[in-house]
Amino acid sequence: MNELYQLIEAKIKASGYPGDIDGREFYNDISDEVEEKENGTYLFMIKKSDTLEYKGCMTIVDDEFDLHYVDIHDGEVSYHVDFDA
Fold first, then answer.
1. Burial of 51 from C-beta contacts in 10 A (0-12 / 13-18 / 19+)
2. Is 36 left (phi over 0), alpha (psi -120 to 50) or beta?
3. Can you spell out the DSSP letters for 38-52?
4. Which pLDDT score, from 0 to 100, does residue 8 have?
5. Nearby residues of 18 by Cβ (< 8 Å), 6 or more positions away
6. What is the per-residue pLDDT across 34-64, written as a single tens digit (0 to 9) for each?
7. 74 φ, ψ to 5°?
8. DSSP alpha helices (H): ranges in the chain?
9. Cβ atoms of 71 and 79 closer than 8 Å
């Protein structure tokens, strides 16, 4: 799992996002969105603070998910992270 968390952190940093990011925490935040959802493709939003939020798209199949992208909105600035690339 540590490789996955490191990959998440690397992709987010490559987007230009200057803030601190914890791959495990990010993964857990996204995983919480999957609970009790039926199979399908979903848009989601996770509000981390008054100025920081994640908006993205994922596909859920059974108990697994495929995160396609996330836009990290930090105040007025947005960073796009494409997890399919």
1. exposed
2. left
3. PSEEEEEEEE-SSSE
4. 97
5. none
6. 888 999 999 999 999 999 999 999 999 987 8
7. -120, 95
8. 2-14, 23-34
9. yes
Residue 15: strand, helix, or coil: coil
For residue 5, count CB atoms less than 10 angstroms from its CB and return exposed for 0-12, middle for 13-18, buried for 19 or more. middle
Q: What is the pTM of this model?
A: 0.91
Looking at residue 58, its amino acid is M
φ, ψ at 63 (rounded to 5°): -100, 15
Question: How many CB atoms neighbour CB 64 within 10 A?
Answer: 9
